[in-house]
Design goal:
The chain is α+β, with helices and mostly antiparallel strands. The protein is built from 18 helices and 13 strands. The longest helix is centred in the N-terminal third of the chain and has 25 residues. It starts with 8 loop residues before the first strand and ends with a helix. It comes from Nocardiopsis metallicus.
């Protein structure tokens, strides 16, 4: 680990492969990915998973479905009541995540600087005069103040009718969103269709702190990341957050979190850290298998890591789990190990899965089929069948 973290390290351990496997399955269980540790609500899932990856429409619904037993609770994500205390932010690695308000505040504050920089660059590339963007932003705020949540295409048309160039409107919308003036919401009642709307943040989420400092945001975000996903390497942390090595280290130092350094050669040649109190909690926990799960595209449990992905890949070649642009595909996981992938069949309205050769026993195949039937039923219940058939 980095020398700057040395003051925080209170202990060090070399873990065997069996100990590391037990630790990894314990981490998964804390996020609801175990039969004995299923979660109770959409809100609890978004909190303990540190958000729902939302870059693709099915991912939030599928992420919740993997962690909750109650179908009614899973379907709540598609209803206003299930989204009331969750906000979707473009944050870690500039990717959409749906988060509880306190975590959204931290994620927004920690990552705003590079997202705002991109929006300002877009303004230059569009050759949009700053004065025009300011005026369009004011008119945009006035429109939303009067009409409430509005689709982005309607925003463009209505502001264009008042003399604003569409490229200027798009830049104004992007910049206001990245600055936290506006908020985005997908208000679709189904998981396979988007209804993209924008509203004023102050009205949509009056308890959302969009003025948190960058330093405070980074501190809160990285402490929660360490708590949910440790043990992690420094490379894991910087890749997941898109923050610099210095930002991550300083965040943990400011928080004063006590660390245990762990070495697992089969995961990474470099040491990892986790919160000391969590490691103590793990050592006192009973060993239990985490079971069979069908994880979403870019599931947060897997995207939390980069350097130490061998914890869940094991002998599986990375191309079996990741697509050509580096996104983790919808995967089948058995007791903490990815053994194959799955996909939704729009024609037959069911999940089709593929297990890599030699990665699962006959009894495990049966357990996967059972999980696929359950998840298929959930996906059908939240589906727009008109879009599915088209």
């Amino acid at each position: 680990m980095t020398p700057e973290l040395a003051p925080l390290i209170v202990d060090s351990h070399l873990l065997s492969d069996s100990e590391a496997s037990r630790l990894w399955q314990w981490v998964l269980a804390r996020q609801g990915l175990a039969p004995h540790a299923r979660l109770g609500s959409v809100e609890e899932t978004a909190d303990l998973a540190l958000g729902l990856h939302a870059a693709r429409l099915p991912s939030p619904f599928q992420t919740v479905a993997a962690r909750l037993d109650d179908p009614a609770q899973v379907l709540r994500l598609l209803a206003p009541a299930g989204r009331r205390d969750l906000v979707t932010v473009r944050c870690m690695r500039k990717t959409l995540h749906t988060l509880p308000l306190p975590l959204a505040s931290a994620a927004h504050a920690a990552t705003r600087h590079f997202r705002e920089r991109d929006a300002l660059r877009a303004m230059l590339n569009a050759q949009a005069p700053e004065a025009d963007v300011v005026t369009a932003t004011a008119d945009l705020a006035g429109l939303l103040e009067q009409d409430g949540p509005t689709g982005h295409r309607d925003i463009e048309k209505r502001l264009a009718a008042h003399g604003h160039a569409v490229p200027v409107v798009r830049v104004a919308l992007k910049l206001a969103w990245e600055r936290g003036i506006l908020t985005y919401a997908n208000t679709s009642p189904v998981w396979n269709r988007e209804r993209r709307t924008f509203d004023l943040t102050a009205r949509a989420y009056p308890r959302w702190d969009t003025d948190m400092s960058r330093e405070r945001g980074a501190e809160q975000l990285m402490v929660v990341y360490l708590d949910r996903y440790g043990p992690v390497s420094m490379r894991d942390a910087t890749w997941w957050s898109a923050l610099s090595r210095r930002d991550v280290g300083q965040a943990w130092l400011r928080a004063g979190v006590k660390l245990v350094e762990l070495q697992v050669p089969s995961w990474s040649p470099h040491p990892m850290v986790m919160a000391a109190d969590r490691f103590t909690e793990f050592t006192q926990a009973e060993a239990q298998e985490s079971g069979v799960h069908l994880l979403a595209h870019e599931d947060v449990a897997l995207k939390a890591y980069f350097e130490t992905r061998r914890r869940y890949l094991g002998p599986l070649p990375a191309p079996k789990a990741f697509n050509q642009i580096g996104e983790v595909r919808p995967t089948v996981m058995i007791d903490g190990q990815v053994v194959g992938t799955w996909a939704w069949d729009n024609r037959d309205l069911r999940i089709r899965h593929q297990i890599a050769r030699g990665m699962a026993s006959a009894s495990a195949h049966s357990r996967v089929r059972t999980a696929a039937r359950r998840t298929s039923a959930l996906l059908r219940a939240g589906l727009d069948h008109t879009s599915a058939a088209s």
